[in-house]
Design brief:
About 40% of the residues are buried. The strands form two sheets. Strands 3-4-5-6-7 form a five-stranded mixed sheet, with helices on both faces. Strands 1-2 form a two-stranded parallel sheet. Helix 1 crosses helix 2 and helix 7 crosses helix 10. The two termini are about 20 Å apart. It has about 270 residues and is of the alpha/beta class. The chain contains eleven helices and seven strands.
Length: about 270
C-alpha cells in the first residue's frame, strides 16, 4: 500500500519519500513501483516511467518527516504498532503537517490519541492496488478538525481520487463494515463445501458485475490483513456476524497469505 500511495503521489508531480525499516524492503518497494509503471507504459498511460521515479526517494531514516507537508502511514493493521509510529511522527512532523493513517478498520481516534495534535490526524483509506483503484475513503476521527478534513480532500483531489467521507469513526468505517462480512461469508461457503473459490468469484463477476471476485481480491490484499481487519470489527462491534471464518484463520496460521506467499485461495506458483 505504501508503494502504491507513493507512486500515485509521484505521478502527479509530488516529491515523495518512502520510509521503511530496511533497505531490502525499500528495494522491494522500488521494484513494485517500477513494475507498476511498466504496466502503465504498455497501456500508453506514461511516456517515461523514469520521470515518475525521479520524484521518489527511499530512506530508512525518519528525518524526512521533518520537511513533509503530508505524512501518510501505511504499516500493518496492528493498533500498538500504529501508535508507536504516530508517537514518532508527532515528535518530528511540522506543526502544520497533514498526518493521515491508511487504516481500513482501526480507530482513527485511538491512533490520534497518542499525539499532541489529534485535530491534525485523519484517516485516508486507499484501496488496493492504489494506482488502479479510484476510491479514497476519508475518515474523520473524533477530534479531527474541519480544516484537516478539507486539507485531506485537497490532497485526494490532487491524487486524482474519487472520495467519500466517513463522518463517524466506527470500526470498518463505511466500506469495510459492509464488504468484510461478505468476504467472510465467501470463506465460510468454501469451508462448508458450498462452492469453490473459482465458482464464487465467477458468480460475483458475472452476477454482480464485479471486476474481481472477493476471494481473489483478498488474496491480493493479503489474507493476514483481511483477518486482522475482521478481528478489529469483531472486537469493535461485538457482533457474531464479524466472527472470522475458521478456514481463514487456519490459512493464515499455515502461512498461506495470498499472492505475497504464492498460495492463498488460489495458487500463484
Amino acid at each position: 500500500m505504501g508503494s502504491g500511495i507513493g507512486q500515485v503521489a509521484a505521478q502527479v508531480g509530488m516529491d515523495v519519500t518512502i520510509i521503511d525499516v530496511t533497505k531490502e524492503s525499500l528495494e522491494q518497494s522500488k521494484q513494485r513501483i517500477e513494475a507498476s509503471l511498466n504496466r502503465f507504459l504498455k497501456k500508453n498511460i506514461f511516456d517515461n516511467p523514469d520521470d515518475v521515479l525521479s520524484n521518489v526517494s527511499f530512506s530508512v531514516e525518519w528525518d524526512a518527516l521533518e520537511l513533509a507537508d503530508v505524512i501518510i502511514e501505511a504499516v500493518p493493521e496492528k493498533m500498538q504498532l500504529k501508535k508507536e509510529i504516530f508517537k514518532k511522527i508527532d515528535l518530528l512532523a511540522k506543526k502544520d503537517s497533514l498526518i493521515a493513517t491508511n487504516t481500513s478498520c482501526l480507530s482513527v481516534t485511538e491512533i490520534a490519541s497518542v499525539t499532541s495534535r489529534p485535530d491534525k490526524v485523519i484517516g485516508m483509506h486507499f484501496f488496493s492496488p492504489v494506482p488502479m483503484m479510484a476510491l479514497l475513503e476519508i475518515v474523520k476521527g473524533y477530534k479531527t478538525s474541519p480544516e484537516t478534513l478539507e486539507a485531506a480532500k485537497v490532497v485526494g483531489e490532487k491524487l486524482g481520487k474519487k472520495m467519500i467521507v466517513a463522518e463517524k469513526d466506527f470500526p470498518g468505517f463505511l466500506m469495510n463494515r459492509i464488504w468484510l462480512p461478505m468476504v467472510n461469508e465467501a470463506c465460510f461457503a468454501v469451508m462448508e463445501g458450498v462452492g469453490s473459490p473459482e465458482e464464487i468469484d465467477q458468480g460475483f463477476k458475472d452476477g454482480y458485475g464485479h471486476t474481481m471476485g472477493p476471494l481473489k481480491t483478498i488474496d491480493m490484499a493479503g489474507l493476514d490483513i483481511t483477518l486482522w481487519a475482521l478481528e478489529a470489527l469483531y472486537e469493535g462491534f461485538g457482533d457474531s456476524k464479524y466472527r472470522p471464518c475458521p478456514l481463514l484463520k487456519k490459512m493464515v496460521e499455515a502461512g498461506d497469505l495470498g499472492t505475497k506467499t504464492g498460495q492463498g485461495f488460489y495458487s500463484y506458483n
